[in-house]
Amino acid sequence: MTTIAIIQHPPVLLDRAATIERAVSWVAEAAASGASLIVFPESFIPGYPSWIWRLAAGRDGAILGQLHARLLANAIDVGRGDLTELYEAARVHKVTIVCGINERDLDHGGGTLYNTVVTIGADGVLLNRHRKLMPTNPERMVHGLGDASGLRVVDSPVGRIGGLICWENYMPLARYALYAQGVEVYVAPTYDSGDAWIGTMRHIALEGRCWVLGSGTALRASDIPQDFPAREALFPDPQEWVNDGDSVVIDPTGKTVAGPMRRETGVLYAEIDIARVAPSRRTLDVTGHYARPDIFELQVRRTPVAPVRYVDA
Q1: Burial class (CB in 10 A: 0-12, 13-18, 19+), 252
Q2: Largest Cα–Cα distance in the chain?
Q3: Which pLDDT does position 206 carry in this prediction?
Q4: Would the pLDDT of 8 be above 90?
Q5: Rounded to whole angstroms, how far apart are CA atoms 210 and 119?
Q6: CB atoms within 10 A of CB 155
Q7: Nearest to residue 5, comparing CAs of 28, 289, 15, 160?
Q8: What domains can be seen in the chain, in order of their start residue?
Q9: What's the pLDDT at 304?
């Protein structure tokens, strides 16, 4: 049995350093409670751009511009050491961490943000970086399109870990690509919540015959910083739950074993047993004996394509 922890606390919105500091403290807390795998929500550093669901691109362009500038300034550049403290926390506590980030890449201009999830090994080394393939609705005004270079399942002490971000989980072919790699612990960091989303988590567990960890975002209006542009107009009621959270853990038979943690902050713990995955696939293995490769074939292009290639004499 392995203890996992899903962190359902809000970030310090639009503050990279403060959010990472909080994340490191929650890693220490969860590790002290015996967790070997610790999961954070979608875009946790420095926070999901929740304002996009309340502002209109044309009418509210000035406010959107201010917010985007702050988000960009506090985004993570993976290649330039912005996650060093989180890597070190994983190494010190010997835990695997899955964390959502807003990512920028200064080696390729740095002007585009990506909705990314990173998997950090217990040795403090980056195991995988996956950029969300298709931002949802107004997210496309914030995040660029990811590629499939991170559409991978990686080995860890807690099993083979893979996952998709929020509504990527509604993309059957993306799910299939992970099932084909033998995912055992399927992680779904998300901003979605509610009964329909929890139903999706159960379906994925049944379809993939794997453990599913839905990592939800819990956010109240009181969590919005005081210097947030148009704060009073956008979030007038400090008691409002902007997002309900609903972190949940589902076993390979579709049974809920922990959560959903709704309208509360904290850490959701659960015991998972990877040994239950293989027997669950005896009756249904969607990329094995239940596949029809003579009829269906999936091709996944995982080679990243750079926007520019320099040739220096």
Answers
A1: buried
A2: 62
A3: 98
A4: yes
A5: 18
A6: 12
A7: 28
A8: 2-280 (3.60.110.10)
A9: 86
pLDDT at 207 over 90: yes
Residue 56: pLDDT band with limits 50, 70, 90: confident
- Token digits for 64? 């959107």
What's the token pair of residue 276?
Answer: 């239950």
Number of alpha carbons in the 13 Å side-chain half-sphere of residue 311? 0
pLDDT in tens, 57-67: 888 889 999 99
Q: Which positions are annotated as active-site residues?
A: 42, 132, 166
- Predicted TM-score (pTM) above 0.85: yes
Q: And the tokens for 15?
A: 């503050």
List, for residues 232-276, the tens digit of each pLDDT value: 889 999 999 999 999 999 999 999 999 999 999 999 999 999 999
In whole angstroms, how far apart are CA 306 and each of 106, 139, 302?
13, 23, 13
Do 132 and 105 contact (CB within 8 A), yes or no?
no
Q: What is the predicted pLDDT for the residue at 53?
A: 93
If residue 22 lies in a helix (H) or strand (E), which one and from where to where?
helix 16-32
Q: Please report the DSSP string for 135-199 in residue order.
A: --GGGGGTB----STT---EEETTEEEEE--GGGGG-HHHHHHHHTTT-SEEEEE-S--SHHHHH
Residues in the chain: 313
According to DSSP, the β-strands at 37-39 and 218-220 are unpaired
60: tokens are 């509210």
Q: Which residues pair with 208 in a beta bridge?
A: none
pLDDT at 237: 94
> What is the predicted pLDDT for the residue at 306?
79
Spatial CB neighbours of 291, under 8 Å, sequence gap ≥ 6: 285
Nearest to 11 by CA among 232, 295, 265: 265
Tokens 């790699």 belong to residue: 181
